[in-house]
Amino acid sequence: MFHDHLVIADKTFRSRLFTGTGKFADKQLMTDSLLASESELVTMALKRIDLGGQEDDILQPLIAAKMNLLPNTSGARNAKEAVYAAELAREALQTNWVKLEIHPDPKYLLPDPIETLAATETLVKAGFVVLPYIHADPVLCKRLEDVGTAAVMPLGAPIGSNKGLRTVEFLEIIIEQSRVPVIVDAGIGAPSHAALAMEMGADAVLVNTAMAVAKDPVAMSKAFSLAVQAGRSAYLAGLGAQGRVASASSPLTAFLD
Amino acid sequence: MSFYDQLQQLDWDDIRLSIYSKTAADVERALSKSKSKSRLDLDDFQALISPAADGYLEQMAQRSQQLTRQRFGNTIQFYVPLYVSNMCSNICSYCGFSMHNQIRRTTLDMPQLAEEAVAIKAMGFEHLLLVAGESERKVGMPYFRQVFSQLKDKFNHLSLEVQPLETEEYAELKDLGLDSVLVYQETYNPRTYAEHHIKGKKRDFKYRLETADRLGEAGIHKIGLGALIGLDEWRTDCFHVAAHLDYLQKRYWQTKYSISFPRLRPCEGVAPPKSIMSDRQLVQLICAYRLFNPDVELSLSTRESEHFRDNVIPLGITTISAGSKTQPGGYSSATDKALEQFEIDDDRHPQQMATLVKNMGLEVVWKDWDRAITSVE
Predict the structure, then answer these.
(1) Domain segments of chain A: what residues?
(2) Domain total of chain B
(3) What is the pLDDT along chain B (377 residues), one digit of tens a residue?
(4) Inter-chain residue contact B58 with A250, CB threshold 8 Å
């Protein structure tokens, strides 16, 4: 039987919906929503985790639900800070996976490509599985591949904006060219955006704000789960032709007759 | 995973059956994707080279022409092959240079090479393709070093079509002025490959297949791919060319690529082709490559007839040779035709071809590279 699983580094995922822990009204709602999403990889900001405490209230329910943890370096403004944060996270959470986020700009939280490339190279050499959050820049994606990134996470729109896939032209190029999984991150504000990304051939999407700030986060998380599955199925099925085109006479190939 | 590993996982007959089972709906889907500017995948390519696409040839040609003009403009690049040697230590069933053929063998010495260069420059060419049989002992690195040091200041773009070399050797030649390398797999079916490559280093299928990887690693500017059409079932072989291109573009993303589609032609000591490709099918293949990959260079040689070339050049081709001689020394002196690799069909003079191309509304590009760019340390 055909199993459409996503493989990144040493892990295999059945769900192509990745999630985050931010912005939920309370921990119970967060846990219920993440369970409803069926997500198997959830990111959390290292800066939010109580590294000293044994009973961190973000981590415990996630660990209990057997989710894979993806610490991120949110808050880091340059490569040096991000590498330090990643090392702290590896120590604290016992995972060498890291979502690399370097945004020196506090307003739109746009990722710094130069620092991100440098940090990826350093972290890969130090044995990390690096998933960098980046602008939808096809050349940067290839440069990241060259230094050993495990996946790329181009943005659809500014983080938390819920604006959808504003970078669609560049996401298409990235998906076409990539040798590593492409995870569309940031800007996905509705299940239809997630479905579109999957129909285009993205390997996964990461959604956080749109679930956390919905009127009913649990129901919305379920909706995202279904949208990602539908989009993936449509991609695998191959979208149909968009209408018949009138058949022209044969000015270019008549010489063959 | 290397392309060789990928190839191990693909079953030749499964792919052939998949291509032959494509339907009109599959072709329409691929055409629709192309028209809506979506990227086509290898499955779409299968549909476009399938028998089901025959009835869509005019639509494919229209789209191929549009894409080519959009990407490359109203231009055609000219190049010329320079055969430097017909010596060869391989026995291959289809080639006029094959070691078992009783022909006179020669390798141009440096004064002869200089004469050829003068004759070729006089025709207007700046892009030169150096071709030789595969004789490592007589025509190996020491010879290539001499050739490049003599030619690199005379021509702005030098390509090579000789035996596969090592990564370090390509890197060294790159520093000496090598810009692009053509290495055709001939056939991607290992069994058929073994039948036709009877003796010599060329028997090593894997080493030849991985040449493109070595070129990519050496940072060679452009890599030329192709299958020799006729050795095996052409649709399946050409699907593998597209898959190979797809693999290489993802890995060696700074490299440019070109595809050629030589059809087997009669020549001394050669068995007739196993698969015959009609003119109509070659047009289908050219258009399919263009729809699948709007950026790849497509090259058409003088193996093809005048009539065919005149009609196909505007449909998707980016690069042509003109006035080619396939015997060493053929440009500067009226040398013996018995030395040649194969008979060319279109023997019109380059200036005559240039006028013809201009009359098609296309500009002839003689020079599209400058030696100074690759000389930067």
Answers:
(1) 6-256
(2) 1
(3) 889 999 988 899 999 999 999 999 999 999 999 988 788 999 999 999 999 999 999 999 999 999 998 888 888 999 999 999 988 988 988 888 888 888 888 899 999 999 999 999 999 898 999 999 998 888 999 999 999 999 988 998 999 999 999 999 999 999 999 999 999 999 999 999 999 999 999 999 999 999 999 999 999 999 999 999 999 999 999 999 999 999 999 999 889 999 999 998 666 556 677 778 999 999 999 999 999 999 999 999 888 999 999 999 999 999 999 988 888 888 887 666 666 666 778 888 899 999 999 998 888 888 877 776 666 55
(4) yes
CATH architecture classification, A6-256: Alpha-Beta Barrel (3.20)
The residue whose two tokens read 């030589």 is B262
Residue among B35, B38, B58 whose CB faces A248 most closely: B58
CATH code, B139 = 3.20.20.70
- In chain A the beta strands, taken as DSSP E runs, fall at 6-8, 11-13, 17-20, 41-45, 68-72, 97-100, 129-134, 153-154, 183-185, 204-207
Nearest to A252 among B43, B249, B315 (CB): B315
Q: Are A165 and A197 in contact (CB under 8 A)?
A: yes
ipTM of predicted complex:
0.72
A12 CB within 8 Å of a chain B CB: no
Measured CA distances, B116 to A92, A236, B332 (Å):
71, 55, 5
Q: What is the pTM of this model?
A: 0.81
- Contact state of B58 with A240 under an 8 Å Cβ cutoff: no
Name the closest residue on chain A to residue B55, using Cα atoms: A247
User: Quick check: is A23 catalytic?
Assistant: no
Q: Give me the domain span that covers residue B367.
A: 3-374
